[in-house]
Design a protein that fits this description.
This protein is about 15% helix and about 35% strand. It is of the alpha+beta class. The protein starts with 7 loop residues before the first strand and ends in a 5-residue tail after the last strand.
C-alpha cells in the first residue's frame, strides 16, 4: 500500500521568508525551491520532506509537528543552539525535561519551536539491550 510512498509534512506559516530563513539557515535544510502554488519544499536528505504553506490565520498545534531523528542528541542541540535555537522545558504529567531533555527507556527528546510557533523535536533512539 503506502510502504514505498514518499512522505511530506505540511506546516502552516504566516511569513514564508521568515520561515524559509529559519529552516534553511537555522536548521540547515535544503530548499527544493518555491513551487508554483506558493509553497516551499525543504528536505534534509533523500527521505521525507517539509512543505511550508502560507496560512496567515492558521493556529499552531499544541503537539509536535515534526521530529528529527538524530544520532547524538547533545551534539545536535549544541549545534542548533549555536544557530539561535532555544530548547523548551516541560513539567507535565508524564513528561518532564531536565536541561531541556526528556528521557525514556526508548529515547531522549528535546523540543523547540520554529519562527511560526510550530513545535519541532529532536529525538535520539536509545539502544535496547537484550
Amino acid at each position: 500500500m503506502l510502504s514505498t510512498a514518499k512522505m511530506t509534512t505540511i506546516l502552516p506559516v504566516k511569513d514564508m521568508e521568515r520561515a524559509r530563513n529559519f529552516y534553511e539557515k537555522s536548521l540547515g535544510l535544503a530548499s527544493k525551491g518555491m513551487q508554483e502554488d506558493g509553497t516551499c519544499i525543504l528536505a534534509g536528505g533523500d527521505g521525507p520532506a517539509i512543505e511550508l504553506i502560507v496560512r496567515p490565520e492558521a493556529d499552531t498545534s499544541d503537539h509536535t509537528s515534526v521530529s528529527f531523528e538524530v544520532e547524538d542528541l547533545a551534539s545536535e542541540m549544541k549545534s542548533l543552539e549555536g544557530h539561535g535555537i532555544r530548547f523548551e522545558d516541560y513539567d507535565l504529567p508524564g513528561l518532564k525535561t531536565v536541561d531541556h531533555v526528556a528521557t525514556s527507556a526508548q529515547q531522549k527528546c528535546a523540543w523547540f519551536t520554529d519562527t511560526e510557533g510550530n513545535i519541532l523535536c529532536l529525538h535520539q533512539n536509545l539502544a535496547q539491550e537484550s
